[in-house]
User: Fold this.
Amino acid sequence: MLFAFWISDCSAIQTIQLIRGGENGAGAVSVSIPLLRSGYHYGLPGVRVQDSGPEYTFLLDTGALNAISRELADDLAIPTALTAESMDSNEVVSQVDMARLSSLSFAGIEIRETAAAIMDLRKLDPFLEMPVDGILGANSLRFFSVRFRTYRSQLAINPEDFLTRPVAEYDLQLGLSTSYRPGVERKVGNSQTLLILDTGAYISILDRETFIEWCKSDTLSEVEGRGGVGAFSTSENLVFCELSFNPILAGKRATTSQSGWPAYLRRDSRENLLGLTALDGLELEIDFPEKRVRFFQIQASPPAGSIDSEAPANTGSRIEAPVLSTETPISPSASQTLDRNFYPGFTLFKEKGTVRVLRINRNSRAYANGLRPDMEILEVDGTEVRVLGLTGSIVLLESKAHGSLKAMDGDSSKQIDY
Assistant:
């Protein structure tokens, strides 16, 4: 989540009217769009603004409203329609310039007269390692039924394939209470809790008072100065823990949620942001026209070692690691016969200088603390793993590792087990 608007004066009312404006210029089009992936963020390539010639990359973020960078606004001479008072998820109030875009188009879809904030998106660069020119948020997605497939790095607009048996289904909450971002209500303990669906966040950020009693006692740890939402909204005094349940699947018959569900807890939070870890093994469908939210269990993942032929090529030095069908325990015997440094937990894969997680044991401490396939690894040191994009964060191993990334130097070693 980047910001929310609060109705306190006439300008705020005008802002809401601007956000709720716009129209779908494409009709009932159905399309599947390959997304760019960097760490645990997803980018939408090929976006055109104001019918311009250049194509831009936008961050896909259901927990935000549309935004464009100041550089893009200057290049296309996009004027400010109004200036509004906004508040981020830490209740920090600031002034935000708002623009009205005559056209926002991608993959054969066009949204006309849609609102976008003009912001300094360069603050996101250290977090994303994928410079973006804008953010495609909920006020543009609201015209469609959208299905988010993280395991395929794919966004389906008005999908034609109908999945009949969701593991969980809710009424869509979309209004002032959610700042016009999609949300669902769940009963947690004795109270109803509103959860904002935030594909721009990785690990969820939840209200401490609501969820603290559901934390596994041996997983509580104070975290200082870690930004859980992104460059615009950081928070100190966070608590990391593993919840004993996934809020969206509680009471549902599903095998997709892990035994320890990672989350950050924050004091005095006005809202709960449900991040991508909540989608482990799931497809998320937000049907805006029908006002429904559905979660489907993934029936079949791509075959081991396969790469989506429709996915866009990565033009930089960073590459996508092969997609595995499941996250399975590592076999010691297989590791030893290949003369690798074996450590029960996860396997790293190296290509063109980039080290990523290839596969991981679901029962490992590393998995419980948020390590997932395809994450880029910066360092393995003792009991800590440093992951690209998690500023100041660590993932604990079961015990001290018996190797380091130096073992992967040179061309002879492409994989190593920890």
Remarks:
- The helical segments are 10-19, 70-75, 125-128, 138-141, 208-211, 332-337, 365-368.
- Residues 10-19 form the longest helix (10 residues).
